[in-house]
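REVIEWER CHECKLIST
Item 1: Sequence provided? yes
Item 2: Single chain? yes
Item 3: Sequence as submitted:
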Amino acid sequence: MIMKKTFNIIAKSVAMLLVAFNLNACLEKLPGDYILEEDAMKTFNDAEQTLTGIYSSFMSGALYSGYLTLCPDIQSDLVYAIDGYSNTLGNHWLWKIYSTNSEIESIYASLYSVIGKCNFFLDQVEKVRSTLTDDTQIKYLDYYTGEVYCARALAYSELVKCFCKAYDPATAENEQGIVIRSKYFEKEPVKRASLKESYEFILSDLAKAQELLEDENDYYNSAFFTKAASHAINARVALYMQDWEEAVAQSSKVIDNEYGGFELATTSMYSGGMTYLDYLWNYDSSFEVIWKIGYTQTSYGYPTGSVFLNFTNDYTYYYPDYVPAQWVLNLYGSGDARYNAYFANLQTGYSHQLQWPLLVKYYGNQDLVAVYVYHTNMPKPLRLAEQYLIRAEAYCQKGDYAKASDDLSTLRRSRYTSGGAISVNENNWLQTISDERVRELYMEGFRLHDLKRWNMGFERTPQANSLAEGSTMKVEAGDPLFVWPIPKHEIEAPGSEITGNESNK
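Item 4: Structure as written out by the authors:
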C-alpha cells in the first residue's frame, strides 16, 4: 500500500514543523518568517516534512483538543459552571463573546495557520514534482497533495461553521462567508467571499482530495487523511448546506466502505473488563474512528478533560469548572452504555462537597495517564457514529423515515447492552435527532452549531451548586452570538477589507 511508507515517516516526526508559518493578523506573514522561494520546499523529503507540519498544527490547543471543541458546547445548554470554578472559558458560558476574546482570536488564527501551511505546500508541490523521476515518489506526492487538500477543506469548514451564519441555499449568495486564501506567496484581497463561494471552495478542495486519494488506502483509526475522511467531511458539509441527497451519498461512502473496515464500537467485551466503547475513549483506538489527531507520550495537545475534572489540583478530589446539565443525564435510558462510558459519579473537593456525575469522556488516554499526563485524549473529529447521524437526519429531511429509523437503530444497538431500536416520523424526527446527537456527540463541539442551523434557541435554569451568573438564561433562536465575531485586529489590520458580523457590533 502506498501509505505504509508515509506512516513510518510521519509517525517518527509527528511533532516536527518544517517552518513557523506565523501570521500577522492571521492572514499575513510576518516579514521575519517569510520563506524565500529559493529556500522553500524543493525535494521529496521536504514535501514529507511539510506534510508533517500540517498534521502537527492540528495539535494546537485552540483547535480540537481545546477551544474549537469546548467553546461551542460550553456556550450552549449542555453544561453548568459550578460554584468555585476557575473562570476557564467563562466568557463563552456567560455569552460575553467579543471580538477581542483570546479564545476567538486563537481559533481564527490557528485555522488560518493550518490553511497557510497547506497553501505553502500547494504552491510548491509542482516544483518538487518537476524534479522527480521515480514513479513511486511521484505517486506518493500525489497522495500527499490529496491529504493537504483534505486538511485545508476541513479548516475552512470549521471557519464557516463558527464565523458565518447557517447556510440557506436561498440566501447564501448574499451572506458573508470567510476570507479565502489559496496562495502562500501571492498577495490576495483580504476580504470576505460570499457564503456560497466559501462553501464552493470547500467542496472544490474535497473533490480534488477525492481525485488524488485512493479507496484502497482507507483504514480505520487513522491519524492521516484518507479518502474516507474526505467523504466524511463532505457529508458534514453537505448536511450543513441542506443538500440532503449529497449528505446521504457522501455518508454512505463511509458507512458502506469496503476498504476501511469501519465498525461502530459496541458494548461487547474487548479486554481488561473494557467494552469496545470503553476502549474507544480510554485508549483513543477504535474501528469507528475515521480520523484522529495522533499523540505520543512526548507530543500531545491540550488536556481537554481538565475543565470537567481538574483532578491534578490535589490528586485527591475533582474540581470541575463545568458539570453536565441534568437534562442531558436524563436523556440516557436504561441499557445505554454511553452513560457509564461518558460519566462517573465522583466527589468534588469544593466546600459545598457536590457529588455529581462528572464527564469522564476525556479523563485521559490511559497510555498517557501511565506517564502522569492527565485529562489528555486524542481528538477524534471524524467518527462513524456521526456519519450515521448525518445520514439519518438527511433521510428525515427527505421524508424517508424508515431508512432514518434503521440508521438510528443501528447506532443505538451498538451502544446498548440490549435493545436500542427507535423509530422516527414526521412529527418527532427533529427532537429525536437532536437528542441522539446530544447522547452520542456530547461535548465534541457540535451543539451550538446544531442549534444555529436548526434555528433553535435554549434556556438554562439553575441546578445544584451551579454558578448564579449564567445559570438563568434564555437564548432566542437567531441570537447574533450564535455566529462568533470576527477578531477585531483582523478588521483593523492595514489593508484589510474584512467586514464584521452582527456580533461584532
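Item 5: Key structural point noted by reviewer: The mean pLDDT is 92.
Item 6: Recommendation: ____
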